[in-house]
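Duplicate of #3305? Posting structure anyway:
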């Protein structure tokens, strides 16, 4: 897939190129706003299965820890993380501490995790509690949370509208033979209010099926579940293919209830590897989890640290996610170009979200989807200009235009009818790149974007 970029990135700074400002529209070097941005991968490597918990202005990142228990990494800006201890070994496990997820429940923090049983070497799901997000976490049971006689991994939590908890987990392929194949299946089960026991029988939710989910041959996966509630529906995100493959990727299914039935989205996979000039630039993006900051939805996931040699050495990445008007979900990734940090964190808002745009009645330019992937829901120019208008003037500094699916475009921006800047978007940049015009703070009542030729635009943000 080709990608479009207007800016050259060096030493983590953003620099303008490819446009010129008309008299009256004062433009600044984008490097002046460098601290508004963060780029993938983040500074945590040799991990897997990341989970980020946002709490009181800090971000706590938990991840697969190997034989020693779990660490937690802490950050105040989603860029630089430092390590502190979260959970030591538990008595019933011999190692393989995988996929921790942490939730605040009332006045304490609960961790679900995977570990290998000491007595028989089978994988099981454990639970631990802490008074603080960073731990230490303690195991209250001295045994796995449940034992169905088969290996379980990758547990997560969700709640129904009445506040009843449900655990979504994976029956691992290591002990699940189906039609001559080893397969990982996703199950759900209701939990007691105290989260320490199950209620009722587990329900099968998804199995690997379809061409994309069968690329791994005779061992197939639906694993790494994460659940997001939106407009009364439950969105189950899951990963397919082997974690060691470049095609490890994220898909989604939707249900009206926590225990299904779930219907897989037609636009799967949502998050998958990227290539440029025959070289893999992002390999194996998967096992994601979600968190919100100021109303914005983000997903944490891992990618292979060495894209040309996929392995268990993986690194943390973070991108935005959201929902289209028709209810389908999307993930804006994987990106390598710098993206805006959470707007609430940098004290900014997206002004196009409150503007009127007659040329875009479906809201494709303001639904949050930057449309970097093929087949995404982009706005397509058809001989028209794009006009944004506000009933009252807004104060803006940054205009971002995300091209769709690697299409090269050029055009002109006009502010308030008389202040102009031309732009040209060149092909071959980093995934997730956008044109960026950093202005002196400007009061704006209308914004016009004219494209020189038919082009697809994923998103327009005025910050």
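Output from current build:
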């Amino acid at each position: 897939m080709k990608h479009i970029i207007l800016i050259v990135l060096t030493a983590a700074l953003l620099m303008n190129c490819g446009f010129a400002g008309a008299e009256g529209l004062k433009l600044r070097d984008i490097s002046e706003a460098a601290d508004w941005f963060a780029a993938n991968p983040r500074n945590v490597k040799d991990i897997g299965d990341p989970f980020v918990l946002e709490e009181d202005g800090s971000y706590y990142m938990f991840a697969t820890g190997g034989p020693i228990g779990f660490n937690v990494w802490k950050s105040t800006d989603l860029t630089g993380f430092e390590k502190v201890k979260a959970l030591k070994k538990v008595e019933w496990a011999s190692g393989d501490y995988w996929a921790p997820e942490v939730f605040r429940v009332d006045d304490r923090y609960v961790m679900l995790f995977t570990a290998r049983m000491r007595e028989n070497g089978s994988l099981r799901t454990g639970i631990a509690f802490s008074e603080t997000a960073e731990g230490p976490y303690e195991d209250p049971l001295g045994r796995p949370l449940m034992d169905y006689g088969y290996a379980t991994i990758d547990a997560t939590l969700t709640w129904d509208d009445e506040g009843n908890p449900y655990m979504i987990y994976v029956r691992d392929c290591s002990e699940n033979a189906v039609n001559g194949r080893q397969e990982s299946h996703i199950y759900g089960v209701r939990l007691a209010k105290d989260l320490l026991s199950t209620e009722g029988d587990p329900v099968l939710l998804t199995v690997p099926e379809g061409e994309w989910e069968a690329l791994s041959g005779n061992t197939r996966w639906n694993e790494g579940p994460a659940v997001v509630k939106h407009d009364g529906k439950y969105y189950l995100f899951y990963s397919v293919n082997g974690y060691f493959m470049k095609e490890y990727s994220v898909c989604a299914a939707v249900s009206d209830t926590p225990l299904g039935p779930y219907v897989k989205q037609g636009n799967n996979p949502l998050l998958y590897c990227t290539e440029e000039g025959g070289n893999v630039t992002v390999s194996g993006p998967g096992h994601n989890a979600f968190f919100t900051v100021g109303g914005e939805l983000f997903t944490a996931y891992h990618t292979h640290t060495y894209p040309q040699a996929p392995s268990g050495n993986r690194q943390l990445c973070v991108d935005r996610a959201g929902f289209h008007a028709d209810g389908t979900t999307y993930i804006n990734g994987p990106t390598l170009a710098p993206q805006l940090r959470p707007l609430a964190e940098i004290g900014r808002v997206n002004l196009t979200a409150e503007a009127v745009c007659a040329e875009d009645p479906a809201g494709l330019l303001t639904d949050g989807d930057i449309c970097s992937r093929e087949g995404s829901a982009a706005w397509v120019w058809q001989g028209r200009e794009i006009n944004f208008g506000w009933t009252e003037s807004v104060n803006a500094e940054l205009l971002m235009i995300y091209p769709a699916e690697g299409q090269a475009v050029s055009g002109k921006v006009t502010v308030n009818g008389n202040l102009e800047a031309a732009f040209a978007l060149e092909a071959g940049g980093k995934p997730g790149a956008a044109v960026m015009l950093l202005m002196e703070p400007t009061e704006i009542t209308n914004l016009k974007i004219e494209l020189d030729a038919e082009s697809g635009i994923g998103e327009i943000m005025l910050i």
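Confirmed duplicate; merging threads. The mean pLDDT is 91. The domain at 4-37+345-462 is CATH 2.60.120.260 (Jelly Rolls).
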